[in-house]
Every structure is written in C-alpha cells, then in structure tokens.
Amino acid sequence: MRRVTIVLCTCYSTLLGEIDFERLRSFFSDSPLVEKILVSDRLCEKNVFENLGLDDDRVVVAACSTRLLEAVFKGSGGFNGLVEFVNIREQCAKACGNREEATWKAIRLVKGAVQKALHAEPLSTEGLKIVKEALVIGGGIAGVRCALDIADAGYRVYLVEKEPSIGGVMAQLDKTFPTLDCSICIEGPLLSEAGRNRNITIIPNAEVVEVKGVVGDFKVRIRVNPTYVDPDKCNGCGECVNVCPVYQPNKYDADLKPVKAIYCPFAQAVPLKYVINRDYCVECGLCMKACTRAAINLEDKPKTVELNVGAIVVAVGSDLFDPRLKPEYHYGEYENVITNMEFERIICASGPTGGILLKRDGKPAKRVAFIQCVGSRESGAGIEECSYYCCAASMKEARLILEHDREARVFIFYNELRAFGKGWEDLLYRRCLEDGVVFIRSRPSEIRRTGDGSLLIVYEDTLTGSRGELEVDMVVLALGFKPSSRMIELAERLGVTVDKHGFIEEAHAKMRPLETRVRGIFVAGTCHGPRDIVESAVEGSGAAALVTSLFGRSSLRLPEYARVSLEKCTGCGRCLASCEYGAIVREGDKVRVLESVCNGCGSCLAACPQEAITLGNWGLEQLSPMVSAMLED
Amino acid sequence: MSWKPRVIVFTCWCSSSGVDQAGFEGFTYPPNVLTVRVPCSAVINPSLIVKAFEKGADAVLVTACRPSELRRVAPSRVTEARVSLLRRLLRTIGVEEDRLRILWISSNEGSLFSREVSRILGEVERLGPLNIGGSMVEQG
Ligand SMILES: Cc1cc2nc3c(=O)[nH]c(=O)nc-3n(C[C@H](O)[C@H](O)[C@H](O)COP(=O)(O)OP(=O)(O)OC[C@H]3O[C@@H](n4cnc5c(N)ncnc54)[C@H](O)[C@@H]3O)c2cc1C
Ligand code: SF4
Ligand code: SF4
Known about the structure:
The complex is a heterodimer of chains A (633) and B (140).
Chain A: E1 4-9, H1 21-29, E2 34-40, E3 58-63, H2 66-76, E4 83-87, H3 89-93, H4 99-119, E5 133-137, H5 141-152, E6 156-160, E7 175-176, E8 181-182, H6 183-196, E9 200-203, E10 206-214, E11 217-224, H7 239-243, E12 247-249, E13 258-260, E14 262-263, E15 275-276, H8 286-290, E16 303-309, E17 311-314, E18 337-339, H9 340-347, E19 367-374, H10 390-404, E20 409-414, H11 424-434, E21 438-441, E22 446-449, E23 455-460, E24 467-472, E25 474-479, H12 485-494, E26 521-523, H13 533-551, E27 562-564, H14 574-578, E28 584-587, E29 590-593, H15 603-607, E30 613-615, H16 620-631
Parallel strand pairs in A: 1-2, 1-3, 3-4, 5-6, 5-17, 6-9, 17-26, 18-25, 19-20, 19-25, 20-21
Antiparallel strand pairs in A: 7-8, 10-11, 11-16, 12-13, 14-15, 22-23, 23-24, 27-30, 28-29
Helix pairs in contact in A: 1-4, 4-16, 5-6, 5-13, 9-10, 10-11
Chain B: E1 7-11, H1 13-24, E2 33-37, H2 46-54, E3 59-64, H3 75-92, E4 100-104, H4 110-127, H5 134-139
Parallel strand pairs in B: 1-2, 1-3, 3-4
Helix pairs in contact in B: 1-4
C-alpha cells in the first residue's frame, strides 16, 4: 500500500508559537496512510532535505511559501513529482488569528496534501543528457565573440557561416564609430584567433537545414554548398586567380570592385581559401592547371554535415532595407545615390577607388548629403523602429569625408539626431559641428537630377518650416536594418519566433534578453533587433556565458510539460492559440506539445474541449481526493 | 466553535503568491479558508468545483490572474466562462450562485485577497450552510 512521509518544518522554531506541532504530529501519527513524521527546523538549508534520505518516498513537506521552497528543491534536484508542498507559514500560521485556528487549518491542509501525494504518479527523473558542444550560427562579430568565449571555456564550437569567410558586416566597414578605428584592423585578429582556436570548427559556405531534439541534445543538419575548391588542399596561394579569365562583382565590396570567378572575398578572410562562383565560371579549366595542389574540383557537390550539440546561438545578423522600395530617392537609377554600405567600401583604402570618394564618372565628390532613417522610423515599406546605429554611422562617415578632404561640404538630413552611446556626443556630434557639417532636420521628399548630372534634394526643413532645395554631388542613404524572409525560414527551422518586423523574438525582452522561446537556443547581435558593434559583442559574450553555464551542469530536467492523449485529441486545434509560448504544434491530424518550449503553465488544459491534455499531477485523480480530504470532518 | 462556512480556494501560481503575501504582511482572514495551489486556473476542471460542493464546501473561490495581465491569451477568460456557467447551473438546482466566485488576484495583492475573502465569507455566513440534498452528498 502507498504511504506518505510527512516532513514538518518549524522555520527555525518561529512557528512553534503559532502552530501546535505536537497536535499536528499526533493527528497523523496513527494514520494508516502515514509512514512516518519528521520534524526539521531548517528545511531550506543546503542538503537538509537530501540528508533525510527520502529519495523514492511519497513526501508531504509542510513548511513555508511553496514558491520559495519549490525553487530550493528543484535547484537541488530533489524533484520527482512525489513531493507535495503545503504552506503552513504564510497561508496558515501567519494568516490565522490564533494558535488554535492555525493548528486546525494546518491539519486540513496537510490532510489534503497527503491525498495528493498518495495519488501522484512519479514523473520522470531521468536527467536529459547534455552534449557539451555548441553550434553558433553566423560569423559576424556577435557570433565570433561568442564562439571564442565558449571555446575558451573549453568546449567545442561549430561556427556555421553562409559566406566563404566569417567577419560579417564589421569586416566590410572602413572605420568604426565613435573612435574611428579601422574596423578590419580590430576585427581581423579576432577572426584569425577563431580560425586558429583548436576548439572552434568553422564551417563556411554552409546553412542550417534542419534542427531536431531538445536542449542539451539537438540534432542539426547542415548543408555545405559546393565551392569547387577542396579546402583541405587549398593553401591560399592565389595562383588560380592570375589565370582565371572572367570577372564578377564582389559581394564583399558591395559589388563595386570586380574579382575573378575564382576568388577569396578579402585579404583577411578566415578561412583563407579560394572558392569559385559557378554563375560566372566558364569552365575553361585554366585554374585547374595552375593549381599545384590539385585542389580544384569542378564536379564538387553539396555536402551534408550532421551535428549533435547541446546548445545553439543564433547570430545571423540582419539585412538592410532595400532602398529601391523608396522610389523617390531613385537608388539604382541615379548612380550617385548610394547606400551607406557602398560608402563604407568606397571610403576604405582597400575598396574600389582606393579610399578616394569618387563619383561614378571618376570625378571627386565635393558636396555630399546623408539622408537618415531610410526604411526606419516610418510605416510603409520600412519598419517603425529606430535603427539605432545609423545616426552615429552617418556622423562617422561625415567625419571620414572631412578627414580625407577638408574642402568637402557635408550635409546630414536627420529626423531626430540620436547620439546616446558612450563617446557619441563628443566624438561624433560635437566634432561634426566643429568641422562644419550642416545638420538639416528633414526627411527629404525627393531627389532630382539636374541637367549637369548633379543631384537636387527637395526638402522641407521641419525646424523652420521652410522648403528648400540643395544641390550635391552624392547622396548617401542611411539604411535601417530590415530582416529578410530568410530569417523567418531559419526561425521556423529552429522553432523560435520572430517579432512583427522579422527579428528573432526573445523569451522575455527584458528579463531573458538572450534566450529564445526554445530552451537551449540563444540569440546575439542584430538578428534580434538593431544594435551596434559593442552591443553585439557584449551579447556574444553574454550568450556564451549562458551556454557555458548550461554545460557546467551535470544533467538537466525539463519542467513538467503538458501531454496530449492521441486517443482523445480530435485535432480541433483550439489549444494552439491558448499557449502563450507557442508550445503546441500541429502534427498530422492531431497536435503535439514541444517539450522544450512548454512551460507547464496549464493554459492549454482549459482550451481543450476533449480534456485530451494533462499536466503532471494536476489531474482530477489527484485534486479530487485532495479537496475531499480537506473538507472531511 | 459555532457554524462557520468552509471555503475551498483554488489559487493559480501567481495568485497563490498573492495569498502568501497576505500572510507575509500580516493580513489575517478566517481559518476555514482552505487553499489549493494549482499551476493555472485552467487546470480547475468544473467537476472539481462540483466535487468541492459535494464534499461539504459552503463556497468555492477561484483566484486567478487578471486577464489583462496575461501575455497573449487568457486562460482566466476560460475560467471565468466556466465559473459563470457553473453559477447558472447552481441557480437552476436551487443553490445560491454567490457561493461560487472568481477573484482576480495578482502576485502582490495580499491585502486585496484578505479583504475580499473576509467579505465573501461574511456573505456566505449569512446564506447559511449549503444544502444540496443529503442523497447527493452520500453518493459522493
Ligand atoms: C553601413 C554600416 C555602418 C556601420 N557602422 C558601425 C560603426 O561604425 N560602429 C558600430 O558599432 N556599428 C556599426 N554598424 C553596425 C554593426 O555593423 C552591427 O551592429 C554589427 O556588425 C552586427 O554584428 P552581427 O554579428 O550581429 O551581424 P553581422 O555582422 O551581420 O553578421 C552576421 C553573419 O551571419 C551570417 N549569416 C547570415 N545568415 C546566415 C545563415 N542562415 N546561416 C549562417 N550564417 C548566416 C552572415 O553572412 C554574417 O557573416 C554599421 C552598420 C552598417 C550597415
Ligand atoms: S502547459 Fe502551458 S506552456 Fe505547456 S503547452 Fe500547455 S499552454 Fe503551452
Ligand atoms: S484542443 Fe484538444 S482536441 Fe483540440 S487539437 Fe488541442 S488537444 Fe486536440
């Protein structure tokens, strides 16, 4: 027969005056349902409960606030569903007027709990295994910082990058605000460190195609696209480039500077391996002859890599707004209307013009205007949010122009100028004012082209209310971040959610800012909203800390999660919307609860008209005898 | 003691913290208010409420999160609908519907809980013991 052990806690003897523990004990001591009664005075202290040796027993713990105590118990791992808590402190001793009443109430509460414990079914205590290897998706600054930190803690990291090299946006920037230090000079060492680190396996030219499993034990399938050059053989000598007869635009250089069809995107690339773009390759085979290491294989096929990891960090960055969606600025049509990313490449010494700000006709640009908030802070084609980095980026770029050419004139069309970061006010805004940058508060309505090919910006100054026209040689559009539909596809594969703009959604924007709704999948960088380099790097380290804290545990247990009875479920789907966490998904003509998403809140139980969903020991089988016993005389 | 109504209070996790808070801050309420802590008001199956009455509760109270405080959907709304349906059923079998109540209690509303629960108890006391016919009670 099932019997229960009762453990009473006097809360450092403070409850002795409020509850008659002797009467409480004697009430239950003769009960055939009760195995034994133990009294402790400090159950919440470390190992006190564990040392009672009640591992497999059905136990009723009568002590303080269940919420507090449960946390202590869960933390120590003593939680198998057979322990029932009663709060005889706040909900009894402290709530009753006198000792007599409190004792009477304590007896009732314990009677109920005894019944619940008797009818409880043991929950699985089997800890989930934790595979102590991590996957980081995306090799921008956030992903690289994260991979390095996890690797330095001693764990293996797979860093999957869709491009031929890691580095992300930061590798493309000329200088970084507010200090104007050379971007690749500070990121490059980090990239090569990641390349050299024995714990990091970089998988370039690759994308995640499938993710299965739960926290601690994800099975991930990765597609490695063919590069037609065997990375194990290529030593980056570059002989092939000399012979290749065809050119293609280089994505790294914002398509402004041609490279050969067999190429390496930039000098500091990691890994430093050549790849062939088959869209341009004419299959002449010259490179094959030139390569002394026989690394080139035009028959290369996509490969699949299967990984088993315990945690995943999503750091895939974000795309930028497509300026063609604002036809009034004629991007793509007027050749001297460029994006700020194109500007970064042009002003960079290794860029297409060797760092000289030239118009497309090769003449220097002497009058340059920046237009802020292109695709941000507006409804319509863009998103309504501020894109965070672009005021600072444009002020940085304005300073770069003036550093190169003191004679140049620079104008910034802004809406509100935001310079909130450390050093931004001083090193960006004030310096721009001192250097004579003209700030005009306006979102220009149109760019026109004049007879001589220069650009005419039509605007209304919202400070003075006056309309104006400004003639310039070049317009730089400060684009807001805007995730592409690929982000949604990736999110779906991972089982995480995206917000209304398409950025990855956090488990809680403030309290759990680097976690997603899926336990064991974390986020860092611009993939969950606009931010700058500093913040992306901070988050990379933060996510790494969460991963290593997970890996530091010996085993893992999921909270009680909801289960659907496939016999009872009719597939009506009403439960789907009831779950705040989106833990319920369709599967065939029924539904399934995703264990690693479910928080055990129980909301879905109410939605199901078939009573097909159960949650741990919270069914009628347990609660009904509990309530009966509490009311019995 | 003289007759006092016996009340079962089903509390969801959040409102249970509110009940804790009452004791913590020293707000007392009658001892015959017996609390049952459940994860979400949604797990309170209507038959459980019926069971409580059957087994001798003179009143049943459900405390849950204010629907407006929940993130996306409101299990509290479902509970509210269940409670109002049950109240109608109670009336049709001749039981005062005010013996079944729902209360919105947040995790910090200890004083509200103790105040409301004492008030409701006073009302139930005036209604007297629940009488739904001896046969039904015996069958349970
Ligand atoms: C023009 C411009 C100027 C800027 N200037 C500055 C500045 O001066 N100072 C500053 O602090 N910030 C600046 N920023 C912002 C800064 O670039 C970003 O905050 C930062 O680079 C974000 O880093 P990240 O790692 O999150 O993303 P990213 O750098 O975008 O890296 C994401 C990586 O993930 C890869 N990836 C994408 N999808 C997948 C996939 N499905 N699978 C695998 N890999 C994938 C990408 O190829 C990329 O390598 C600027 C931004 C722009 C656009
Ligand atoms: S118990 Fe809560 S978290 Fe789990 S599936 Fe149901 S509604 Fe979602
Ligand atoms: S509400 Fe119930 S019956 Fe309907 S799909 Fe969900 S589990 Fe199945």
